[in-house]
Design a protein that fits this description.
Elements: H1 2-26, H2 33-46, H3 48-51, H4 55-73, E1 89-94, E2 100-102, E3 107-112, E4 116-121, E5 132-137, E6 143-147, E7 165-167, E8 173-175, E9 180-181, H5 188-203, H6 209-242
Antiparallel strand pairs: 1-5, 2-3, 3-4, 5-6, 7-8, 8-9
Length: about 240
């Protein structure tokens, strides 16, 4: 899966560089999706390490870049930029390879090209009819799979009332209805562990295995804090939409 992330990142960065080259006025217009696929065939024949990867994953990386550029020209997204290893690592699986099934109450599995079936722990029920999913690697070293499906609309209360939201520091959000929302964070014990890991990482020799290990421990705690906040935001947004 790390090699799939490497291939997708490599092709994405090539597309960003190619787009910047044509934007400087070296030619009339950049190549389209069909031309980029032809170029992909050529570089796969030239580089053996790229040829051993999944062509479907690599083609989807080109489609993701085309979609990102369309969003940029429509004014809905920022301009695509270079990707760095360890940040936004991931790849998308679509088409006939996008297969997933439920194993039991807690576990499911999905198909990864060149690898086979991979089990994952469900945090929520997988949507029915999902024809694509994205596998990502966060900074804490955890793999995630997210299914792409259009969510069902949440019916509103129909009263026509508007609720104002004021974001703050001490109080996460204050509503015009008088309700105050406090975003949860790490426990006192986990915050103490986080400071301890960060101090040990700062004292460890540069580029040592000890420094990497301490930063990995801190990253796992940061990832847990991010998960807690995401769950809070999702549950609160759904609750407010139904009020």
């Amino acid at each position: 899966m790390e090699s799939h992330c490497r291939d997708a990142r490599y092709l994405w960065n090539l597309c960003v560089e190619q787009q910047a080259y044509f934007a400087r006025g070296h030619a009339a217009r950049p190549p389209g999706h069909a031309e980029r696929n032809r170029q992909l065939t050529e570089i796969r024949a030239e580089h053996g390490w790229l040829r051993t990867g999944s062509v479907n994953v690599q083609q989807q990386a080109l489609r993701d870049f085309d979609q990102a550029m369309a969003g940029f020209f429509n004014g809905t997204h920022r301009k695509p930029n270079f990707r760095k290893k360890g940040r936004s690592d991931g790849f998308r699986v679509v088409g006939k390879d996008a297969r997933h099934e439920k194993l039991n109450r807690k576990w499911s599995r999905c198909w990864v090209p060149k690898l086979g079936w991979v089990k994952f722990r469900r945090t929520r029920d997988a949507p029915v009819g999902a024809k694509s999913y994205r596998v990502t690697l966060d900074r804490a070293g955890r793999w995630h799979v997210a299914f792409a499906v259009k969510p069902d609309p949440i019916p509103g209360p129909g009263t026509g009332e508007i609720v104002g939201v004021d974001r703050g520091v001490v109080i996460t959000a204050a509503l015009s209805t008088g309700e105050k929302l406090h975003c949860p964070s790490l426990s006192v014990r986990d915050r103490a562990r986080l400071r301890k890991d960060q101090r040990r990482a700062a004292r460890a020799p540069k580029k040592s295995a000890a420094k990497e290990a301490e930063y990995a421990k801190a990253g796992r705690l940061r990832g847990r804090e991010t998960d807690i906040r995401k769950d809070f935001v999702e549950k609160t947004s759904t609750r407010l939409a139904r009020q």
